Amino acid sequence: MLHKISLGTGDINKYRMVEARGTIDELVSLGEELKGLRVCHINSTPFGGGVAEMLVCYIPLVRSLGIKADWQIIRGDRRFFTITKGLHNALQGAPFEDIKKENIVSVYQNNNLANASELDPNYDVFIVNDPQPAALRHYLSQNKAKWIWRCHVDSSQPDKTVWNFLRPYIEEYDAAVFTTPKFIPKDLELAKIVTMAPAICAFSSKNMFIKRYVCRELVENLGFDTNRPLITQVSRFDRWKDPFGTIAAYKLAKMKIPGLQLALVGSFAPDDPEGWDLHAAISDEVNKDDDIFIFSNLTGVGSMEVNAFQRASDVIIQKSIREGFGLVVAEALWKETPVVAGNAGGIPLQMPGELGNYLVNSVEECAEKIVYLLEHPTVSQKLGKIGKEIVRQNFLFPRLIRDELKLIKSLVGK
Ligand code: UDP
């Protein structure tokens, strides 16, 4: 059987401290209508990356509404995950190697077939995340559940061959979910296509309140000089996150702010075999400059430390060139830390109005905004406050759970 992640039951009422009362009441009543419904999320990794990050908190909260929510993880070897990372990149517009080459199609299909035979099928609704397990529905065509495909990447301009390969699998679903309307591929034909943005958990160890002096002590223990400015990028070791662009922007900014320090906090994920090579290449750069540091989940920098970095840094950078959503942006804004981020994919959704002045299209622009914010702390503080309110109103879990339960309700006919 596929691995089911062990999680308990949360408490949605905690959110009454930060959310409008109406949203929580609406959730409780949706929960009553759907009580006992068996819902299962499926993805390809229990840690590393935004989907896993969300499900860890999402499942306990949905359970607290009376729904029987679970999370199963598909299995695969390095070859399978190398192919699926290629599919992920291709959905975001990167050219894909010839799909007919070296059994790519059969490796993808055989792995999905094997996973389908090991899936616990006893659910009313399956939510399948991203391209890795997308063909499961095809191999379980007799299964009576409702099937939702949830796309977390920027699929607005997918590589044609890859999209033509994946599209028939996706069109077998009952519904598909995208983060924003512009990500919906034009030729996708499905009775129900909806959009909903991801969200963060206000109370997880990643986002819970930690006093600033503790955060500063934590980063100090990792070697930072807290009397000098610190900028941080938190992301998987992935080329779309543009870590070299971030380093280049830091170097430009350092010409104006000589004491500047840069932390690159990254994570490896078992379904992302490209991470190792990128980590090695970034480390080569880091070794040339005593004020750049690289950390990862393999050296003990976990959620609590990321939380501390996001609070102790003067500016958070997310210089992505493609980005499905970028939970890290919402995480930093929730902590009232200003963000300079790539004008890409789902990031602008999180940085409307005045925050939009800090969306950048080049290394030079990124450096310029970093310097401006470091030299104008009152502007930083103001942006931080605006950012927190945007997250509170739009990007916390109750809103996402409500959107998802409404979709589920429409599919199961309650
Ligand atoms: N993350 C982490 N440690 C790291 C790097 C990333 O915990 O060293 C988390 C980060 O805080 C965020 C998630 O991984 O919650 C990344 O999600 P995002 O949507 O930003 O990007 P994705 O990896 O899904 O492309």
Attribute tags:
alpha/beta; Rossmann fold; 2 domains; six-stranded parallel beta sheet; 43% helix; binds uridine-5'-diphosphate
Give an overview in words.
With about 425 residues, this protein is an alpha/beta fold. It folds into two domains: about 210 residues, Glycogen Phosphorylase B (Rossmann fold); about 180 residues, 3-Layer(aba) Sandwich (Rossmann fold), CATH 3.40.50. About 45% of the residues lie in helices and about 15% in strands. It is built from 15 helices and 13 strands.
Calculate the terminal CA-CA distance, rounded to whole Å. Answer: 30 Å
The ligands bound in this entry are:
uridine-5'-diphosphate
**Class by helix and strand content?**
alpha/beta
* Average pLDDT, all residues: 96
CATH first level of the largest domain: Alpha Beta
Q: Radius of gyration in whole Å, from Cα?
A: 21 Å
Please describe the biggest sheet, giving its number of strands, its sense, and whether it closes into a barrel. 7 strands, mixed
The fraction of residues in strands falls at 5-15%
How helical, in percent, are the residues?
40-55%
Widest sheet, order of strands: 1-3-2-4-5-6-7
The total count of helices amounts to 15
Write the layout of secondary structure elements.
Elements: E1 3-4, H1 21-33, E2 38-43, H2 50-63, E3 68-73, H3 78-91, H4 104-118, E4 125-129, H5 136-139, E5 146-150, H6 160-170, E6 175-178, E7 193-195, H7 212-221, E8 230-234, H8 243-256, E9 261-266, H9 275-286, E10 292-296, H10 303-312, E11 315-318, H11 327-334, E12 339-342, H12 347-350, E13 359-360, H13 363-375, H14 377-394, H15 397-412
Parallel strand pairs: 2-3, 2-4, 4-5, 5-6, 6-7, 8-9, 8-11, 9-10, 11-12, 12-13
Antiparallel strand pairs: 1-3
Helix pairs in contact: 1-15, 3-4, 7-10, 8-13, 11-14
The protein binds uridine-5'-diphosphate.
